[in-house]
C-alpha cells in the first residue's frame, strides 16, 4: 500500500563520514564530562564558522546578521550528524548515548554558540513517543531524520470539540484491506503546513470508554486525504492550521503502540509537549523571544528613560525582584523535569508544574516589558517595540498550548495534592453513548 500512496517508508539515505554528514563524534557512551567536553571544544574550533562564533558572543541580533535562518538550516544536518544536537539519545538514533551529566556538560559547552535545536516538535513530541513506544524498525526509520531536521513533524491531536477534554475526540480510523483509513477534523496544528508526518490520535473503538478506544498513528502528510488550511492568530502570524482528513491512509507499520492503546502514547507526547512549551525558547521560538529575558529587563530598568529609571522606583523594584525570583524557580523546576527525563524516568505531574509556572511567569514578564516600553514615547516605532508587542500577545497562547493553565491545575490538584477527581457522570460509559 505504501507504494500505491507514495508514502515514504524509508528514511532519506545519507552515508556517514562525509563532510555533509560526518560520523558521530568519537565520544564513548561512558565518557566523563571532562573527556567529552575536550572533544566538543575541538569540534567547535573546526566546525563552527569563525564569524558565527564571534557574532554569537556579541548577541542574538549580531548572530542573526551573519547567520540567517536559511544558512543555519543548511548547516544544521552536519551539526546534528555529530550526535551533538541531542547527545543523550542513543547513538543508533542520532545521539551519542552519553549520561545525563555528560550531556549537560556538552550542552553547557555549546550554549554560548547558540546552536538552537531545529524540529523541536519532532524531537520533543514525536521523538519522545517513538523512543518510548516505537518498534526498533520505527526508531531506525524516523529518529535520525528528526534529529537532522530532514523530516518535519506536527501534532494532530486537538479537534474543534476536543481540546482540554482530548480523550473525547471524534476523528476515526477504520480498518481497510491494506491498513487504516482516517477521517475527521483536527485544529490548532502547529507547523502542519511544513510537516512530513503528523503524530495523530484517532478513535478505533467507539464502543469502548473514551480513553480506551484510541490509537496513535504516524500519519504521512503528503497524500490526497490530508488538507492543511492555515489559521491566523492574535499576533498576526499563522503558526498553526486546521487539518481536514478525508479518508487519509496509513499502513499497519504506521501505528505507534498497539490498537486502542493510543491514550498511553498520547500521555508521553503531552508530557514532552509541556516540557517543550515551558522550556527554553518557549513562546514562539527563539527568533522572536531574543532579547526579552528577565535579565535584559533588569538591565533596561537601570538605563536612562525619559520617564525616569524604573530601577529607582520602589514599586518597579518589587516587581522586578519578584520576576527574577520566579525565573530562578522556573529554571530549577525545568532542570528537575529534564533530569528525570534524561535518566529515563517519566516526568509525570512535574511537567505540569513546569508548564503552569513558566507560562504564567512568561505572561507576567511580557507584561512588565510592555509596561516598561510604554514609558518610552517612540517605543511603538522601534524594533524593540515590535518585539515587545509580539511577546505580550504571544505569551497568551503560551498558557493555552500544551494544555491550559486551568487544566494543569486540575492535574496537579489530583496528582500532587491528592484531591478527588473531577466528577464525570459518564465515567466508564462507551464513547458512543456520551452526548457531544
Ligand atoms: C499556540 C497554540 C498551538 C497549539 N498547537 C497544537 C498542536 O500543534 N496540535 C494540537 O493538537 N493542538 C494544538 N493546540 C491546541 C491546544 O492543545 C488546545 O487549545 C488546548 O488544549 C485547549 O483546548 P481548547 O482550545 O479546545 O479549549 P477548551 O478545552 O474548549 O477550553 C476553553 C476554556 O475552558 C477551560 N476548561 C476546559 N475544561 C476545563 C476543566 N475541566 N476545568 C477547568 N477549566 C476548564 C480551559 O482552561 C479554557 O479556559 C495549540 C494551541 C495553541 C494556543
Roughly what is the average pLDDT, rounded to an integer?
88
How much beta, percentage-wise?
5-15%
List how many beta strands DSSP finds: 8
Bound compounds:
flavin-adenine dinucleotide
Output the CATH topology of the largest domain: Butyryl-CoA Dehydrogenase, subunit A, domain 3
Oligomerization state of this entry? single chain
Task: Indicate how many domains the architecture comprises.
Answer: 3
| Rg of Cα set | 23 Å
Examine the secondary-structure arrangement and name the CATH architecture of the largest domain: Up-down Bundle
Number of helices: 15
Helix proportion: 40-55%
N to C succession of SSEs: HHHHHHHHEEEEEEEEHHHHHHH
N-to-C terminal Cα separation, in Å? 35 Å
* Sheet with most strands: 4 strands, mixed
Under CATH, the homologous superfamily of the largest domain reads Butyryl-CoA Dehydrogenase, subunit A, domain 3
Uncertain runs are 1-6, 278-289
What is the overall shape? globular
Q: In the CATH hierarchy, what is the class of the largest domain?
A: Mainly Alpha
Strand order of the largest sheet: 1-4-5-8
Characterise the protein shown here.
- By secondary structure, the chain is of the alpha+beta class.
- It contains 15 helices and 8 strands.
- The protein has 3 domains: 2-118, no CATH class; 153-260, Butyryl-CoA Dehydrogenase, subunit A, domain 2 (Beta Barrel), CATH 2.40.110; 279-415, Butyryl-CoA Dehydrogenase, subunit A, domain 3, CATH 1.20.140.
- The protein has helices at 2-5, 33-47, 50-58, 60-66, 69-81, 100-110, 120-133, 136-147, 262-278, 286-289, 294-302, 314-342, 350-374, 383-398, 405-415, and strands spanning 153-156, 172-175, 180-187, 197-203, 214-220, 226-231, 240-250, 255-256.
- Strand 2 and strand 3 (180-187) form a beta hairpin.
- The radius of gyration is 23 Å and the shape is globular.
- The two termini are 35 Å apart.
- The structure holds flavin-adenine dinucleotide.
- Flavin-adenine dinucleotide (FAD) binds next to strand 1 and helix 15.
